[in-house]
Amino acid sequence: xxxxxxxxxxxxxxxxxxxxxxxxxxxxxxxxxxxxxxxxxxxxxxxxxxxxxxxxxxxxxxxxxxxxxxxxxxxxxxxxxxxxxxxxxxxxxxxxxxxxxxxxxxxxxxxxxxxxxx
Length: 118
Known about the structure:
With 118 residues, this protein is mainly alpha-helical. It has one domain: de novo design (two linked rop proteins).
């Protein structure tokens, strides 16, 4: 997958997260999780775009580590939603899988960048 395709994939991930956030109940639990998920989920694509503009390989690795953290945090909040029974697991399973795939791809990219740097 090239950079443009991954930019689009992370953008679509953020948009899907926003749809989930909109579907959450307006209770205290729902609002708390919604804010956390919205920030982490939309941050994935924004930070990937920043990584694409990195000034050095060290800067790229650092920024990609942020993408990894945000995608993993998004998976966490999606799992919280399932366990707290705020939305049906069936609805969130594909998005949790996507978050985990993004994490795996980012880790692979970081590993490759570190190997090339050494």
